[in-house]
Design goal:
six-stranded mixed β-sheet; alpha+beta
């Protein structure tokens, strides 16, 4: 998988989680403008919850050799924001911040229940991400927020061979 595809593939994996798609929970892509992500405030006001997939981050170079091969840690952050008063009312989605943490963890890491509970899970994880914990949930600026973290090792292969 190319680095530039990780965020959009995470979007696809989370969007196909049965409980996310069937309850109408919006899944958004951050283009680096958070908190001004397009549609975020409207969805919190009308749906009561939204899931935002942040741009990938690089953590560290974990290994390298003289030939140019290297490995680095890539981090994917998925943010959940919930307007508790609306979302936990009868008009809400039924997907609380805590439930979204579990669903996202299962959907990205390839654990069970990414498709309908009545059909077998044929959706393989889109990339070998390792679940790396979560932060929150806690209140911030009137919304309940949490983040789920994933890591994957990316390998760099040199394209030019040393002429020696």
């Amino acid at each position: 998988m190319n680095l530039e595809d990780i965020q959009t593939n995470a979007f696809a994996a989370i969007s196909r989680i049965f409980e996310v798609s069937s309850s109408g929970v919006p899944v958004l892509l951050d283009d680096g403008t958070y908190p001004k992500v397009d549609g975020r405030e409207e969805h919190l006001r009308t749906k009561g919850v939204c899931i935002i997939i942040m741009p990938i981050r690089f953590d560290e170079l974990t290994d390298s050799v003289r030939s140019g091969f290297a490995a680095e840690e890539i981090i994917l952050d998925v943010l959940i924001e919930e307007n508790v008063k609306l979302n936990r009312s009868p008009a809400g989605t039924g997907v609380s911040c805590e439930k979204a943490i579990r669903l996202i963890r299962e959907g990205i890491s390839g654990r069970p229940n990414v498709s309908s509970p009545n059909s077998p899970n044929s959706d393989a994880p889109f990339t070998p991400f390792r679940y790396d914990g979560f932060w929150g949930p806690e209140f911030n600026n009137g919304a309940r927020q949490a983040a789920v973290f994933f890591r994957v090792k990316s390998f760099i292969t040199p394209t030019n061979k040393d002429p020696q």
